[in-house]
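Bumping my old thread because nobody answered last time. Still need a sequence for this structure:
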């Protein structure tokens, strides 16, 4: 037994899952990082230093260090670098081979124990026992292998790349056809190559809609806007330039760098590849996500504790059976074989099968609702989850800017402001960002303003990030022009000298004195406090003689008002969060966005905001202080990825089962750190890889179905574990009493094995069983102490009726001598099998079985089938093979009375147990 115990300890890491994934992005293990945003996100110093240098140096210097040329690399140079640097792929979890997967499905403590017992049986010449035990192992392993295989294949279909080629400039490529593009060829020197074949030093061509395939330094750029939300959480695109960079600290702030994992919204560029694969900013984070192991989830830890409880019980009881039978019967070999059979009976060998089948059933049901379950145990974690941490952008919100208000400088609704904003957005030729699109949705203004008839565009002053404003000049009448400017509030106030005030007669323009400036700022601050992004709108009239305009003309403007925008919450967010609260799941928002905007969104979806905890505050907190803060706060803003991960870990350390929902690379560490990671199919690849659950539709209402399905799964698994633990305890207690009292074995080893196999088959209906609605109202968690108490409380009930059976067979059927032992053993075989099979109906519900709560048809069918098989087997031609014999008719009234008495006593004791300890 010591050897078997050692085997358990060595192999126990894989009880239910292929791997245990441990601490991701452990702060103590991270390399030193440079300052700024990049440092906060955990990018190693060397990566940040190399990228900052590429941004700061002039282009010729960058080309020299990259070993490149003005006209790109040759094919030979690219091939040599591909050999040296490897493919341009980030680390990802590789799919298991079928044989490896089969091995890991087999490798759990119970299968290992049963295999050891089968080997011992074979060595002692008991081939029948070897076959029965081997059948148990094969069934358990194959069912799990098939179910997990289905789930894995479904999740693999999500991982298709959005784009798998890039346009590269290669020396000597000439104008060879590439087979791509509308004309079937690229410009001279350009060719299409697989993204995985890009190497440092390559020149690539970027245009609108392209995914950026590597970390690059821009060489040329024209009106280039890049969406970096996956890297930074910012919802608006960022303009990029080819000029040499300086004055920034973080690599993400460099305007001449573009990064793998982002995409081009508009414009075009050529860029020099600086880093590929795992050497990129994206790849560094991805490597840490996939290289690190995840800590055992709450589900794994709970099952582990239950398994060890059963193992410790077996290690104590089996030696007792061996010693008592050896001394009382005098045949130590026979006693050893009997103890071996008892050991097999104590092993819940179908636990892995029942758990996997139950989880797989939940996965199938969720897949019909367009949810892919990547890790089966995530289903149960849904049910155990009591805290859901969620990102804001794209998760609670639609990731679509909406025009919320248009007001004059004094906060009153104003159509004039909307008219000027519409003209500005309509006539600008630069990037139509989300703010412009929100304004242009007011299509009725196009007709109302008679744009084609009354307005003519004269000129434009494009947006840049220094001025943070842009202007268009239109002609409404031939005698004057109107310069209409919109931009960030402070930058706009700097060029405004007057404020428009609406009057009954029309309007008057007031000088911008200190009093008015204070009032204007108070209005905009109030809008910000409502969580709105404020853009100021100003204008001035100019003579019609001027033709060209510049930044210098953006002066002495009249402030006409503000347009305020909101990223609106999803329609499903409020009811989904309300449902989660009703089911005992507390929601917390973790975002990198502004705290005012976040607070506004949270209010709209019904979350209590309270005090918002900011990322800089989290950074300064000790682990102990953070452990208290995460309980006291609901909303966390301006967070970096490591802040999110730290908060999730703090909640788990406080005893919560934590879910995290996000879709960006900045969410990947927290997705891995959570008990259950939830993402969407439009998320970046690394977020989908880090997640356990993928939502194919962005409706949060599926979370309700996931929570309920997870709790159904938990309840069904708990039925099997409770039933197995209590039955095993009762059976062993009965065996100990019978062994000390009877002059022969109460049951043959083979009979015990067959009884156990039939019982296990009867449990295959449990995954499909119904669950009472009352049992899924609150989070459900593993409680080994409760299972141990349940085992000790209900186990002796079956022993009472085993002892009654012993008495009946001894006194009423005269089975007192070794010559009559077959009759005795057959009688107990039938009673033991039927009571074991019936017990699931007693403990599957706190209600009255068969009347107030009925089992699912599948479980009822399996129960009836196995009970019929148990009664028929002693009457069949196989009876002699298993050492059984037909039972007399007088036995069956006793059997019915014993089963009825068992059901009544179990129900009475269940009511007492519920009053005393409750029912989970």
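Sorry it took so long. Here it is:
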């Amino acid at each position: 037994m010591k050897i078997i115990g050692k085997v358990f300890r060595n192999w126990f890491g894989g009880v239910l899952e292929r791997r245990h994934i441990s601490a991701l992005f452990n702060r103590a293990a991270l390399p030193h990082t440079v300052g700024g945003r990049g440092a906060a996100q955990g990018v190693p110093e060397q990566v940040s230093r190399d990228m900052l240098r590429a941004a700061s140096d002039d282009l010729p210097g960058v080309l020299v260090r990259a070993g490149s040329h003005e006209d790109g690399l040759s094919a030979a140079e690219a091939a040599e670098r591909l050999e040296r640097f490897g493919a341009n792929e980030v680390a990802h979890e590789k799919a298991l081979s079928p044989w490896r997967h089969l091995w890991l499905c087999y490798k759990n403590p119970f299968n290992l124990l049963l295999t050891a017992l089968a080997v011992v049986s074979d060595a002692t010449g008991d081939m029948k026992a070897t076959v029965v035990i081997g059948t148990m192992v094969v069934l358990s392993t194959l069912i799990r292998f098939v179910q997990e295989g289905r789930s894995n294949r479904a999740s693999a279909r999500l991982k298709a790349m959005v784009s798998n080629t890039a346009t590269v400039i290669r020396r000597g490529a000439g104008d060879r056809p590439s087979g791509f593009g509308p004309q079937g060829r690229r410009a001279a020197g350009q060719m299409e190559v697989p993204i995985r074949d890009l190497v440092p030093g390559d020149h690539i061509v970027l245009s609108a809609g392209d995914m950026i395939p590597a970390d690059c330094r821009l060489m040329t750029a024209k009106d280039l806007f890049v969406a970096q939300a996956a890297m930074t959480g910012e919802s608006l695109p960022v303009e990029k330039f080819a000029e040499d960079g300086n004055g920034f600290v973080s690599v993400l702030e460099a305007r001449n760098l573009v990064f793998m994992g982002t995409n081009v919204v508009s414009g075009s560029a050529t860029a020099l590849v600086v880093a590929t694969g795992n050497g990129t900013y994206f790849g560094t984070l991805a490597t840490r996500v996939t290289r690190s192991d995840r800590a055992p989830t709450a589900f794994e830890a709970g099952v582990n504790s239950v398994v060890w409880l059963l193992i410790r019980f077996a290690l104590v009881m089996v030696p007792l059976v061996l010693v008592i039978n050896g001394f009382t019967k005098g045949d130590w070999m026979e006693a050893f074989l009997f103890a071996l059979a008892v050991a097999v009976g104590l092993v819940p060998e179908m636990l892995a099968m029942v758990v996997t089948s139950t989880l797989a059933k939940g996965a199938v049901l969720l897949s019909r609702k367009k949810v892919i379950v990547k890790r089966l145990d995530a289903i149960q974690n849904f049910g155990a989850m009591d805290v859901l941490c969620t990102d804001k952008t794209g998760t609670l919100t639609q990731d679509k800017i909406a025009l919320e208000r248009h007001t004059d400088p004094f906060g009153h609704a104003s159509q004039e402001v909307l008219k000027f904003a519409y003209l500005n957005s309509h006539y600008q030729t630069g990037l139509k960002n989300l703010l412009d699109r929100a304004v242009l949705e007011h299509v009725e203004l196009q007709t109302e303003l008679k744009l084609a008839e009354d307005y003519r565009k004269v000129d434009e002053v494009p947006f840049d990030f220094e001025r943070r404003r842009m202007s268009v000049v239109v002609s409404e009448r031939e005698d004057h022009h109107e310069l209409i400017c919109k931009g960030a509030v402070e930058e706009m106030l700097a060029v405004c000298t007057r404020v428009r005030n609406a009057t009954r007669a029309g309007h008057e323009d007031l000088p911008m004195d200190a009093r008015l400036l204070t009032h204007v700022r108070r209005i905009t601050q109030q809008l910000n406090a409502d969580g709105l992004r404020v853009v100021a709108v100003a204008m001035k009239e100019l003579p019609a003689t001027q033709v060209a305009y510049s930044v210098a003309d953006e002066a002495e403007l009249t402030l006409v008002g503000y347009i305020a925008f909101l990223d609106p919450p999803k329609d499903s967010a409020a009811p989904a969060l309300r449902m989660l609260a009703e089911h005992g799941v507390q929601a917390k928002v973790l975002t990198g966005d502004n705290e005012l905007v976040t607070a506004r969104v949270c209010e709209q979806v019904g979350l209590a905001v309270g005090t918002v905890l900011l990322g800089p505050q989290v950074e300064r907190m000790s682990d102990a202080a953070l452990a208290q803060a995460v309980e006291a706060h609901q909303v966390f803003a301006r967070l970096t990825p490591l802040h999110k991960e730290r908060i999730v870990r703090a909640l788990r350390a406080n005893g919560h089962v934590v879910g995290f929902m996000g879709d960006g690379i900045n969410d990947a560490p927290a997705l891995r750190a959570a008990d259950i990671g939830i993402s969407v199919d439009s998320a970046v690849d690394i977020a989908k890889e880090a997640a356990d659950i993928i939502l194919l539709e962005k409706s949060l209402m599926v979370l309700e179905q996931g929570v309920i399905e997870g709790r159904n799964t938990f309840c069904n698994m708990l039925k099997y574990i409770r039933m197995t633990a209590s039955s095993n305890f009762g059976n062993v207690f009965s065996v100990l009493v019978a062994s000390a009292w009877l002059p022969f074995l109460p049951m043959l080893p083979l009979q015990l094995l067959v009884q156990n196999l039939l019982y296990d088959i009867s449990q295959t209906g449990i995954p499909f069983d119904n669950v009472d609605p009352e049992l899924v109202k609150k989070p459900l968690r593993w409680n080994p102490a409760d299972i141990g108490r349940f085992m000790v409380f209900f186990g002796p009930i079956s022993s009472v009726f085993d002892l009654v059976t012993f008495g009946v067979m001894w006194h009423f059927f005269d089975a007192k001598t070794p010559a009559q032992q077959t009759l005795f053993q057959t009688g107990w075989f039938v009673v033991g099998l039927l009571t074991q099979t019936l017990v699931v109906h007693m403990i599957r519900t706190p209600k009255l079985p068969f009347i107030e709560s009925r089992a699912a048809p599948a479980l009822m069918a399996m129960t009836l089938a196995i009970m019929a098989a148990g009664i028929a087997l002693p009457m069949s031609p196989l009876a002699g093979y298993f050492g059984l014999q037909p039972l007399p008719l007088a036995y069956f009234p006793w059997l019915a009375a014993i089963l009825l008495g068992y059901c009544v006593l179990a129900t009475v004791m269940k009511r007492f147990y519920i009053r005393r300890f409750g029912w989970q």
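The domain at 19-92+161-291 is CATH 2.70.150.10 (Calcium-transporting ATPase, cytoplasmic transduction domain A). Let me know if any region looks off to you.
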